[in-house]
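Box 3.1 A note on notation
Throughout this textbook, protein chains are presented in two layers. The first layer is the amino acid sequence; the second is a C-alpha cell string describing backbone geometry. Keep the layers aligned when reading.
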Amino acid sequence: MSISIPQIRDKEFSTKVFGYSKREVKEFLEFVANEIYQDRLAHSEIKEKETKEKEYISDKAKQAEQSVEALERREELIHKTLLFAENAKAEMISNARKEAENIIREAEVKARKTINEARHYLNQLDYQFLKLKEEKRMFLLQTASQFKAYLERIEKDPTLARINEANVQEGLKKIKADIKPKQEEKDED
C-alpha cells in the first residue's frame, strides 16, 4: 500500500491528554519513512537501470559512430583508390598513345628515308644504265667505223685484194645486221 501526499497532509492524529498519541505518530512516521524509502529505492533502481541503459545506448552509439567513421574512412580510401586508378589508367592510355604516335612518326621518317635512298639508288642505276647503253652504242659505232676503215684499206691494198670480195661483203652485212637491231633497241629506250 502506497501513501499519497494528500494522505500525508490530511492525516489526523487522535489527541490524548498530553497531545497526540506517540505510538500513532511513530507508526505513521515509520509507515511514511518506509514508503519514502521504498519509493526512493524503486526510484534509485529505475535511475540505475536508466543509467545502465543510457550507458549501454551510449556505448552502442559510440560503437555505431566508430563503425560509421571506419566506413567513411574506407569509403574515402576506396574513393581515393578509384581516383588514383582512373588517373593511372588515363595516364597509361595517354602514354601509350604518345608512344604509338612516336613509333608511327619514327616509322614514317624511316620509310621516307628508305624511299628516298631507294629513289636515289634507282636514279644512280638508271644513270649508269643509260651511260652503259651510250658506251655500248659508241663502242658499236666505233667498231663499225673501224671495220669500215679496215675494209676500205683492204680494198685499196693490192696485196689483200685477192681475198674473196664475197666473203668481205658477207662479213660486212653481219656487222651491219648486229649494229642495226642494237640501234633500234636504243631508239626504243
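The chain has one domain: 5-188. Residues 22-156 form the longest helix (135 residues).
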